[in-house]
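Please complete every field before forwarding. Incomplete forms are returned to the sender.

SECTION A: IDENTIFIERS
Entry label: holo-572
Bound molecule: 2-acetamido-2-deoxy-beta-D-glucopyranose
Molecule representation: SMILES string

SECTION B: INPUTS
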Amino acid sequence: MLIPWCMLHLLLPLLLGVFAADDNCTATEVSLMQHREVHKAGSLGTLTLRTTNESLRAEHEAILDDALQAHKGCSKGKNCSFSEHSPMFPTPATIPVISYADAAKTQAAWQAPMKKTYDNGVRSPALGWNSWNQFNLDVNEAKVLSVARAMKSSGLLDSGFEYIIIDDGWGMPERDQDGQMQADPAKFPNGIKWLAEQLHGLGFKFGIYTSVGETTCGGGQPGIMGHIQIDAATFASWDVDYVKVDRCGWPGELFFAPGLDVGDLPEFARIVAGIDYPENGNWDCSGLMLFVLVRGCKYPASFYQVSGRVEGYQNLSAALNSTGRTMYLEICDWGEDDTLAFAPQIANSFRMLWDNFPQWHRVEEIYEYYAQVLAIPASTRPGAYAFADMLEGGVDGFLYNRDTFPASNLTRREAATEHAMWSMWSSPLILGYDVAKPSKVWVTEIMKNPALLKINQDPLGIAARLAVRRQKNFCPISDCYHTDVWVKPLAEGDVAVALVNVAGAYNQNNIFYTTESITVAWETLWLSPETNVSVYSATEQKDLGVMRGSVSMDVEPHGVTVLVLTPQKTTV
Ligand SMILES: *[C@@H]1O[C@H](CO)[C@@H](O)[C@H](O)[C@H]1NC(C)=O
Ligand SMILES: *[C@@H]1O[C@H](CO)[C@@H](O)[C@H](O)[C@H]1NC(C)=O
Ligand SMILES: *[C@@H]1O[C@H](CO)[C@@H](O)[C@H](O)[C@H]1NC(C)=O
Ligand SMILES: *[C@@H]1O[C@H](CO)[C@@H](O)[C@H](O)[C@H]1NC(C)=O
Ligand SMILES: *[C@@H]1O[C@H](CO)[C@@H](O)[C@H](O)[C@H]1NC(C)=O
Ligand SMILES: *[C@@H]1O[C@H](CO)[C@@H](O)[C@H](O)[C@H]1NC(C)=O
Ligand SMILES: *[C@@H]1O[C@H](CO)[C@@H](O)[C@H](O)[C@H]1NC(C)=O
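SECTION C: PREDICTED COMPLEX
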C-alpha cells in the first residue's frame, strides 16, 4: 500500500498520532529500520528544500524533522544528510577468509549451521510463474492456460520454469457444504483439479494460494485458519504441487485507517520515506509518491507479533506432509514473525519482505535489504530459500498494481538486473509478466539465460553477499549512489560476482548517472593476485579469457554484469 505525496498530509497526523503511544520495539527490528530510515530520510530532506510551494514545504519539513529526530543523535534543525549518517553497509571485512577453491570450506564459512528438519525432497529454489503481478485478482483459467502454453512454446518450461501458481482471487468467499474451499466458477469453470490436469499434461507443476488467517490478503477468500487438515487434503486431492501461504486475515491485527491495510505496516516501517521519483523530473503530484513514515520505535510490536501465526504455518507444513503428496511450501510472511528463525525448518522458501512492484526504486529497496541483512546467506540452503518476491520484469505496471497510481515498468536493463540479482541470491525466480504477449519476447530471452539460471540453481544454494561498495561522491538531489560487487560461492570452486551500477531511484537515463567502471580485485575473493582466473560473463554468455589480479567491467546505470570466475589450479 502506497500513499501519494499529495495525500500525505491527510494521513500523516493520523499515523503519528496512532504510533506515538508506544515507544517499544524489538532490537532487530530497530536496527534494521535505522539503516533504512537514515538513508531515506536524508533524501527526503533535500527534496523538501526543493519544493517551491511554501505551504507544502512546511509540511514536508515537519515530516522530515520528525523522521530525523526519531533517529538517535540527530536533533531538530541539524543537517542530517546522507553523508553525515551513512548507513552501516557491510564492508569486505565481513566476508570471511575462505578458499574459493574448496567449496566445502566456503560453505562452512558462509553458512551458520541451520536446522532444517522438514525435507520434502525439493532441494532447489522454485522456478515458475505466478498470476499476481500482472493479473492480480483478475485471474482466470483462460489466462493461466494461455501463459502456460506460451511458457512451453517459448522454451521457458525447458529452461526449468516448471511451476504455474495461481495467486489470490481464484476462490469463492464461502466454503462449500463440506467445508472445502471452492473455486469461483465464473473464473475457473472447469474447477481447480481440471486446471491442474491440463497443466500437468503440458509438463508443468501446479501451485495454489491461500492465507494462514481467516481470509486471504486481497480476495476475501477463506484462509486456512481452523481448516488446516481439510485444506491440505483438498489441495492434495486437486493434485497441487506448490502451496503459497500468505500472512493475512489473522485476528487481533490492528486496523488503523480506512483504506489502509494494516498488514502493510511492517514494510512501511522498513521502507520509511522511500521516494518514487517522477520519470520526467518534475516534482508534481502526478508523479511523486511517498511512503508513509512510520518509525520503528513508534510502531507497536502487536502489529508484527500476533500470537499463533507461526503455529499456523507449522501446522500447515505438517498437514501437507501428512497427505503424502510432495507440495513445495512458500511462506509469505514478509520477513515478520522472525521468519528466519522458524520458516527454514518448515518451508521450501519464505518471503523476506513486503511486495515488489515494477519500479526500480522498489527493486532497489529489496536489493538494499539483501545488502544489509547478513543473516540471509546463513538462512538459505538447499531446500530452504529466502525469497525476494516475484519478478517484475515485463510486468505492465501500475504501481503496486492499483489503478490509482501511474503506470511504470521496469526497463529492459532493470529487468535484467532484477533477474540477475535474484539469481545471485538463490531466490526462487517466479515470473510475473504475461508471457503470452508477443511484445514480451525480450523478457523471455532475459529470463532464459542459462548461465544465470545455473548460478540460481547452484547446488550449494548460498545467497550472494555484498563484498565491495564504492560510494559516489556526487549525489544528485541528495540521492547518493554507489557501485557494488557481490560474491556468491558456487559448487566446484567457482565464484560468481555481480558488478552492479546501482545509480539511484530515477529513470536510468537520468543525466546524472553515468556508466561506471567496476573492478573486482582478486584480494576481494581472498585469492592471490598472481592467480590465473578464467573469466566468463554470465550476462553476456561469453568467455572473457584468463586474467590476473583483477577484472574491470563498464556497467551502465541500473545495470549489472555477472561474471563466473574459475581460479586455475597452480601447476606444481
Ligand atoms: C516498554 O517496555 C518496558 C519494558 O518491557 C515497559 O516497562 C514499558 O512500559 C514499555 N513502554 C510502553 C510505552 O509500552
Ligand atoms: C501548495 O500545497 C498545498 C498543500 O500543502 C496545496 O493545498 C496547495 O494547493 C499548493 N499550492 C499550489 C500552488 O500548488
Ligand atoms: C547539509 O548538508 C549538505 C550535504 O553535506 C550540504 O550540501 C548543505 O549545504 C547542508 N545544509 C545546511 C543547511 O547546512
Ligand atoms: C514428510 O516429512 C518427512 C520428514 O521430513 C520427509 O522425510 C518426507 O519426505 C515428507 N513427505 C512429504 C510428502 O512431504
Ligand atoms: C496447531 O495444531 C495444534 C495441534 O493440533 C493445535 O492445538 C493448535 O491450535 C493449532 N494452531 C493453529 C494456529 O492452527
Ligand atoms: C508499460 O508498458 C506498457 C505495455 O508495454 C505500456 O503500454 C506503458 O505505456 C508502459 N508504461 C510506462 C510508464 O512506460
Ligand atoms: C599464469 O599463467 C601464466 C601464462 O600461462 C603462467 O606463466 C603463470 O605461471 C601462471 N601463474 C600461476 C600462478 O599459475
